Amino acid sequence: MDYTFLLTKNDNICLDILSRFTQQADQVLNKEELAQSLSLTNYQLNKYFETMNADLAAISENTPCYLDEPNKGMWQAFGLNSYLLQKVTLLYLNRSPLFTALEYQFFYSNLYTKRQYVTANYMSSSVFYRALDSLDPVLRKHGFFQASSLYAGEEFTIRLHLFQLYYTMYNGVSEPFEPLNPLISDIVSTIQSELPDELNPTQATKLSTFLRVWLLRMLDSNPIGSDQKLHIKPTESSQAMMDQLQKLLAKQLTLTADEFNYLDSFLIAQGYLGFDEMGKLAADIPAVDELTQQFMGEMENNNVLLTTRLVDNQQLKDSLLSIHFQFTTFYIEPTTFIDPDQVKFFSELYPAFDIAVSHNITKLQRREDLLLTQKMAVNLYFSYMFALINSVPTELMRDQVHICVDFSQGTLYTNYVIRSLDGFNHAHIIIDTHLTEDTDIYISDFHSNKVTQAQVIWQDPPTPVDWSNLADLILDTKRNKLPDLFPNQDTE
Fold it and tell me: Per its UniProt entry, which superkingdom is the organism in (predicted)?
């Protein structure tokens, strides 16, 4: 879910313009083209220019970040990067009346009156009440209350989307609800003591954000309830964790079994407690096995492999189980690996995998109960691709590219090039020690009239351009093979 809908109209326009700068290698924008694209007058653009510079000055750190017009009609950004763009986005979020209304509605409405909250946040009463009145329709319009997983009740959905909001907007910049920092630190330490591995920084940040939403919803008297569909059998370790957490929270609230079950299921879904625990809980979720079997069926039905006998089914099934477990339970809409433009690279490099993955995602998109957004579909595409790349050996692929390396200098140089080709090892390359009928590309230091296959001649150590040209040739070879390998598929 893209939470920039919470920003004011003017801040959204500023964010749009700043985002366009980061998408240009030279960070230069044509002012006239920008005005036409955004339907703005020159006066309006200049006002936004002043606003953006003031905002960039507010979030800049050691290196100044600003916009300038070095040439008439051309705007250029200096010192702007993705991190500072995230910081300015957070600046816009925190000054949004709609966001202030959201925090009151979901975290403080049972603790404070509206008047008390307005006073504490130094807001205009009229602005706050207007934002509060418009909040529910806006959230419904953007699907905030719509379940994004198969195992989500109303409170589960609200918490999940709140978590996505804070994790997306604050991640790597600052921590939401900073007064909670000492308590959150103690809770994370308590949880860490019962985990099999040390938390990585990204895991710790994700857990910390989750805990903040979890705590504030409980403190505002919004319990998860007993109708949640994920139920975990207590273990000695989980009971010890619950007892320690209850001691930490004793002054604030009573930790119920339902609330701990909710926390425990999050830890399992995110893999914090290890794969075995995830497997045990997934066994009680029919949809996980159903989706995994469906994907394996696509691999077989589309005849992607030469044989299925040698596939490490367990490794692939374990990866798919992890993907589908998170997808059907605590699915956190991703902020990375969501660029549809990057799909083309993988579809060309792994065309056989692309066929199976794309077919499977199309089936998921047709299901009304899954509500697959474009970002979710793209992220699933990458997840499936990585699972296949890590699990299926090149020897089993039907879209192999055979390369024969044969240098007149002898085995030393030949072996050097073969070792260098390891960088292409995920392109389903098979190295031939001799020229055969299966060979697709012949690499040598001299051209040979006896070779009918495509020849690559390197009389000097290959340059980056040489490697780039070879990569293009490998992709072309794959494309040319597709119609014969998959005659029933549209391979254009």
Answer: Bacteria
